[in-house]
Amino acid sequence: MASRYPSSLWIRLPLFMLFLEVAFILIFSFLFSYDYDLENLPKGHNIYAEFQDVNVMVILGFAFLLAFLKRFGFSATGFSLLLAALSVQWTMIVNEFLFHFSDGNVKISLQRITEAVMSTAAVMISTGAVLGKVNLMQLIWMAWVEATLFAVNRWVAVSVLQIGSYTSLMHVHLFGAYFGVMVSWALCRPLPDSRAENEKSTPVSDTFAMLGTLFLWMFWPSFNAVLIASTEKKLTALFNTYLGMAASAVAAFSISVATNRNGKLTMAHIRNATLAGGVALGFSASTLRYPWIAMIVGLGAGATSVLGFVFLKKCLERAVRLHDTCGVQYTFGLPSLLGGIVHIVWIAIDSRENLSVGGYSALIEGGALCLSMALGLTGGLLTGFSLRLKLWKEPHATNYFDDQAYWGFPHLAVGY
Amino acid sequence: MASRYPSSLWIRLPLFMLFLEVAFILIFSFLFSYDYDLENLPKGHNIYAEFQDVNVMVILGFAFLLAFLKRFGFSATGFSLLLAALSVQWTMIVNEFLFHFSDGNVKISLQRITEAVMSTAAVMISTGAVLGKVNLMQLIWMAWVEATLFAVNRWVAVSVLQIGSYTSLMHVHLFGAYFGVMVSWALCRPLPDSRAENEKSTPVSDTFAMLGTLFLWMFWPSFNAVLIASTEKKLTALFNTYLGMAASAVAAFSISVATNRNGKLTMAHIRNATLAGGVALGFSASTLRYPWIAMIVGLGAGATSVLGFVFLKKCLERAVRLHDTCGVQYTFGLPSLLGGIVHIVWIAIDSRENLSVGGYSALIEGGALCLSMALGLTGGLLTGFSLRLKLWKEPHATNYFDDQAYWGFPHLAVGY
Amino acid sequence: MASRYPSSLWIRLPLFMLFLEVAFILIFSFLFSYDYDLENLPKGHNIYAEFQDVNVMVILGFAFLLAFLKRFGFSATGFSLLLAALSVQWTMIVNEFLFHFSDGNVKISLQRITEAVMSTAAVMISTGAVLGKVNLMQLIWMAWVEATLFAVNRWVAVSVLQIGSYTSLMHVHLFGAYFGVMVSWALCRPLPDSRAENEKSTPVSDTFAMLGTLFLWMFWPSFNAVLIASTEKKLTALFNTYLGMAASAVAAFSISVATNRNGKLTMAHIRNATLAGGVALGFSASTLRYPWIAMIVGLGAGATSVLGFVFLKKCLERAVRLHDTCGVQYTFGLPSLLGGIVHIVWIAIDSRENLSVGGYSALIEGGALCLSMALGLTGGLLTGFSLRLKLWKEPHATNYFDDQAYWGFPHLAVGY
User: Mind telling me which residue stretches traverse the membrane in this protein (chains A, B, C) (predicted)?
Assistant: First the structure.
């Protein structure tokens, strides 16, 4: 096997990782110390259970959601853990610099760790788009650039456009999806037919992925509500997301059967589209005052997601050579876009007694959406091109979707 | 494959699902709006972590508990998610109509969503009894009827018999098990020998099922305590359930070895009977004032469950053609019956200083138990007969326990 | 099959288990009743979510961490559940006798159950060292002795050496690892070559183990903080552990690649060494006042763990016939030792203004560390020798690492 899977990253990769970690430790040593603001303590402490829900989503949910490939389960779960560990640390640093350095309020709190963990979802989503086609070193570089850019994106949205810090975090799905899609496009190689076999799933790998889906599905209400301070708004976000997820699951099953000529379900749709409701409700979960609107948004998002998988995926693969391993555009991209539009329309409708204020808010939110989209697309494109440098020792297309390129097996693995 | 697995549900099934979801949205739009009763907020908010434990049990625990069949993992996990999503919404609607419509207190709260999620356990349990023998459309119809009937059952118990709302929820195991068993019996077909191969498990599918078991085992204390308002009673329920589960696990291992002539363990016993303690303690977890009683109940429930699997299962299959895929009668039915009897006896003993009150309470609780049993049995029987209508395009027995009847596979699946 | 896997434990094992459970119930009936100290209630109640995190770690995390062997998944998950159920009950009893019997404050509280669950981690860790080489009866005996000894160890540390109750619990990793390693050594048999095939993992069993790892990784902050009363110290412990785990994951990936001549990752390192940071921070998570120190400790622990796996494991297997199935010495033993030394050094440094107090504290902590090490080693050695008694019907080496020796399979299992 040694000849087919070259040991090219031997020294380079560990040095790169250790360099990053040592740099993080140095920056932490200059930047952070524990200095508890006693008034903030009780609140920070109370959100710990919800923080853990979000942590489970980002560390375990996404890792297993990506574990659907036949021979790429080690990389999906292992690389996700590493990328999350690096991204959370780096995001904490960048966030402190951008948001709190000027006011001297540099500290570690549960809220700020939660923000960093939620931001890391962008990296996980992008990883889904390029899964199996890049090596670990390229992933780390992508994660580093993306975490930085998403923090900058949030900073512009919050400081310049004056949108809420919580809403700015909810751009994570849109940003992550389009960033990942563009990286994948910029990296595009004619994929050989030989990789086709490895790009499939097996019943076992699909069941592992379903486990990831279920954790994401169950804890999505926590994701959309964890950082909301007002109890009333928080409960609204929890209920809306819960009901939207339920409607989204029904839509995913319905449309998946309806679009299959044999009237059968497709696991890839169920695994992904059931989550679209939570994605779409990210922006507006706390503001929609009627549960039925949340349910309609969930239903629409689930349907959009499946339709994207069925009609758009193959189309884009052929037309513009856009290969998106997990279909993150349909799970996260389109539903988030839909949710953003609903959010803007709702703001405009909701403030009908004060048209100018509502119109201005809607405009600002629309601007933030365009900003995330633009920064995601261009950032992803540039990152994708940067990943084609010889430096990264890009894997050969014959090694795509294959754990054996990155993991030593005691004996030849035969897939699941 | 197209000839063997007919596409008969192509239009019918998605229209049915979408019709239900649209109906739910319409009813929600007339019935519910968020109108927070500020005094109730803190309490509702505090139970969120425990609500998520219960949510994990119902969404993930049951789904994976049912995933033990060799070739039915997609259906077990996927259908469970869909049924839960539909049942929770419908149960919320029915509960509001039955319990709160008269007093105009129609609202969404964490407590009411928790009640709906707990009620949904009945649907999950019944699904276990008919698993693999009915199609998704039949399951949805069954879930709809069962969720309605269980809500009616609770309403009668609470309004007419005046038993506690919390106790009435604990009938969910008994009701679900006997409803499912009767549906399965009413549907009975001579099962062909060819299905025998598919009704087995593999080490991998059993390990997935064990994952479901562990989540149910760990979070059962939350299930038995989440809705109890008094802190003292809540802690009693948590401790009693925890200790009862431990005793139940020991009983399951002991009796499983003792009843095997080779002195070996049977995975089906361990997967199921370890949970019997939690089921049996549902009724009395908060009232038993001595931990050792809870432990004896757990020990007895675990032993009953394994003995049921060993001696009753084959017997009933042959004698009355009662086929119970998961053995829900032994995991949920008998232990719940045992727990109900303990509950009644304990009430009678505990109020020995006031015999007439105790006797009356015991009588009422016994009546509620009989009501659940009767409604479960007759409801299940009628539902089972209604599922034999041509309308549902019942699967042919050769397709039993086979994902390929409902799921499209990119290539021929070969099981785990 | 009957000839190869003898039914020798048929009557003996169930009687042994039932005897223990009945004895526990009797002791509970004399010892415990629920008598709520009302002032302690709110606090006890608030830690429930964190208690469940720890419960998930001990019941599910360790069970799946041990499920990495090709043909030993049932035993790994099933036996763990049984051992945990027995150990928690027994530890509660011993703890009450040792710590609370004299002051008459014998009661059940969430805090004491949490202590018992955390103590049970020692049994889980030791099980990892002997996994596949002993039968269930031997495991139960080992668990019983170990739970007793660890409680005695804590009692000596708390009562005689006057170290904190919380710190004494953190010796669980060190004690468990060296106890298990010595049991394994005392039991040593020349392992036949035939067992080599069964001692391997498959991609599926490794993915199940990765699931266990992720749960341990995510919830480790709860483990290191759940019983700390001061909010400030609790948050410090949470943050330090979170950051230490992240650094530990980066170290595990880096050193795993660096020590592989093909530049590839080894799943066994990732599964285990990513957890070393949490282990090492057990002692000092709440006292380290700078996050970068926690990160350095995590980095060092992760590196130590991988280096132990790479250089020490084979060496010890050959030189002293020390066979450690899971490598618990490298995951828990060495990192815990490292953490203990850091803890002592930090105490000495931190109290530099008052050298005598600091020196004394450091001396005491060092004494406690030596005590755990000594008691773990000698206890393990004696327990290991006691396990060689004919009484236990030790499995023949040809049955090592094979579920079929303990579990009935409906048909011949072919592994994953």
Answer: 12-34, 54-69, 81-101, 139-157, 169-188, 208-229, 235-258, 292-312, 332-349, 361-385
Backbone angles phi, psi at A266, to 5 degrees: -115, 125
- Sign of torsion over alpha carbons A344, A347, A352, A358: negative
Q: How far is B71 from chain C (nearest CA, A)?
A: 14
Q: What pLDDT, in 10s, does the model give residues A238-262?
A: 999 999 999 999 999 999 999 998 8
Residue A398 CA, distance from chain mean position:
27
Nearest by Cα to A388 from A231, A188, A243: A188
What pLDDT is recorded for position A78?
96
A403 has a chain C CB within 8 A of its CB: yes
- Rounded to a whole number of angstroms, the distance from the CA of C120 to the nearest CA of chain B is 13
More confident position, A257 or C107: A257
Inter-residue contact A221 to A237 (CB < 8 Å): yes
CATH T-level assignment (fold) for domain B9-35+44-404 = Ammonium transporter fold (1.10.3430)
Is the pLDDT at A169 greater than 80, yes or no?
Answer: yes
Residue A262 to residue B9, Cβ atoms within 8 A:
no
Q: Tell me what pLDDT residue C39 has.
A: 47
Residues 6+ apart with CB under 8 A from C83: C120, C123, C124, C127, C139, C140, C143
Residue B414 has pLDDT above 70, yes or no: no
Task: From B14, B1, B9, B2, select the one nearest B395 (Cα to Cα).
Answer: B9
C389-392, long-range: CB within 8 Å, 24+ apart, which pairs?
Answer: C392/C134, C392/C135, C392/C137, C392/C138, C392/C141
Q: Is C222 touching A (CB cutoff 8 A)?
A: yes
CA C343 vs. chain centroid, Å, equals: 20
Q: What would the two tokens of residue C270 be?
A: 């990732």
CA gap B291, C33 in Å, rounded: 7
Per-domain residue ranges of chain A? 9-35+44-404
Q: Give the residue from chain B lying closest to A52, CA to CA.
A: B49
* B60 contacts chain A (CB < 8 A): yes
Name the token pair of C185.
């050594």
Burial A313-348 (b: 16+ CB within 10 A, else e): beebeeeeebbbbbbbbbbbbbbbbbbbebbbebbb
**How far is the C-alpha of A220 from the C-alpha of A241, rounded, in Å?**
7
* C261 min Cα distance to partner chain A (Å): 7
- A191 or C22: whose pLDDT is higher? C22
Please, which residues 294-353 of chain C have a Cβ atom closer than 8 Å to chain A? Answer: 295-296, 299
Q: In the structure encoding, which two tokens stand for residue B282, read together?
A: 């549902």
Q: Are the beta carbons of C251 and A5 separated by less than 8 Å?
A: no
Whether C23 has its CB under 8 Å from any CB of chain B: the answer is no
Beta bridge partners of A265: B407
Q: Is B366 exposed, middle or buried (0-12, 13-18, 19+ CB in 10 A)?
A: middle
Q: Do C289 and A33 touch (CB under 8 A)?
A: yes
Distances (CA, A) of A231 to A167, A227, B37, B43, C45: 17, 11, 12, 11, 21
Other residues' Cβ atoms within 10 Å of the Cβ of residue C410: 12
**By the 8 A CB rule, do C167 and C283 touch?**
yes
Angle B329-B129-B270 (CA atoms, 0-180°, nearest 5)?
A: 60
More confident residue, B319 or A25: A25
| Residue owning tokens 């899964």 | A131
The predicted pLDDT at position C1 comes to 39
List of chain A residues whose C-beta atoms are within 8 Å of the C-beta of residue B11: 258, 263
User: ∠ CA C377-C378-C383 to the nearest 5 degrees?
Assistant: 100
> Virtual CA dihedral for B244, B247, B253, B259, nearest 10 degrees?
-90
Burial (0-12, 13-18, 19+ Cβ within 10 Å), C319: exposed
